[in-house]
Known about the structure:
By secondary structure, the protein is mostly beta strands.
Amino acid sequence: MRKRVTALLLAGLVLAGCSAEVQSGSAKPEGGDKPPVAKFTTAPADGATEVPVNQPVTVTVAEGTIDEVTLTNPEGKAVEGKVAADKKTWSSAEALGYGKSYTYAGKATGTDGKKVELKGAFTTVTPASVVRATLFPADDQTVGVAVPIMVQFDAEVTDRAAAEKALTVTNSANVKGSWAWLNAKEVHYRPEAYWPANTKVHVEAKLYGVHYGGGAYGKADVTSDFTIGRNQVVKIETGSHQLVVQRDGQTVATYPASFGKDDDPELTTPNGTFVVMQKDAQWSFDNPRYGYTNVLKKWAVRFSNHGEFIHENNDNAGNIGRVNSSHGCANLLEADAKAYYDSALIGDPVEVTGSITTLPAQYDWYDWQIPWAQWQTMSAL
Length: 381
C-alpha cells in the first residue's frame, strides 16, 4: 500500500508541474498573438507608376492615429506635408516632379496600442514633351477696357478642354466672361461688353501637370494681377475726317485726321472694333508694294495686325482733316498725335465705321470683331 500511495503522489507532482508551465504561458497579455489593427492607405498606392504630379499625395490610417509620415524625393529631401488635426490623414503641400521616384515612410499607433510602420514607393509620369505657357496682361499692368486676357502655348494643345479647365478669372466687378480658342496654341478671355473701368482682375493658369494630349504636359503655373484703367474709346467715322476720343461716353478730344483712301478696299481704314496693341515713340513703316520702306513716323499706336496705326504724319498735313489719303492708318498732326499717344493705354478700343471695307476676324487682336454668341461657342467646355 505504501508503494502505491507514493506512486500516486509522484504522479500528482508530475501533473502539477505541467499545469504550471501552461499557467506561465497563459500569463502573456490577452490577444498578444493578434496582428495590429491600424492600417495605412496611400494614394498613390505603393508601386504605382505614371502618377500625376499635380494631385496631392495622401496617407490615411484606419483604426489608429498617425505618429509621423515622410515622403522623400530622389534627392533625399522631404516633400512638404501636414498631418490633419485628427491625426487620421497626412497630405502633401507641394507639387511633385516629373519622372521621379518617391518613397513613403511613417508610423502610426493603433486603437489596440500597437505600432505599425508605413513603407512604399511610387513613380511620377515622364512627359514626352513639356509645354510652356505665357499670360497677358502681366502683373501690375494697367490696361484699357477692351483688353483680352491671353494664354499662349509654345506648342499645339490637343486636349483644349483639359487646358481650359485649369484657367480661372476673378475680378472686383464680378463680370462674367468666356474663353475662346483662336487656334491650337492660343486661348483668349473677354466679357460680353467692355470691362468696367478700374476693375481689378486676377488670373490663374494652373497648368503644371496638365496633360494636353499626346504625352505633352504643362510646364508651370502662371498667374497675373492687373487693373483695368479709365474707360477711353477712340471713335473713327471715316467720312468725318476726325478722330474722336471719349472717356466714360463723353468726348474729351477731337483731332483732324486723314484715314485710308475711301474708294480703295485695299487701302481704306476698315470697319471693326479693334484694340490698341502697341505704342512706339517712333516706328518705321514699310510697304514695298506701294513704293516705300523705312518711313519713320512719330507717336505710333498700333490697333490692328493688319497694319493699321494712329500716328503722326506732318508730310500729309494738307490732307489731314480734309481728305482720306493714307494707306489705312489714321494720320494726325504731330502735336495731336503726341497728345493722343500720351493718353492711350494698351487695351483701349478703337471703333471704326463708315468704311467700304469690313476687316475679317483674323488679324490680332480681333476678339471684339466676333459676336458674343459666336465667341462663347469657341470655348472647349
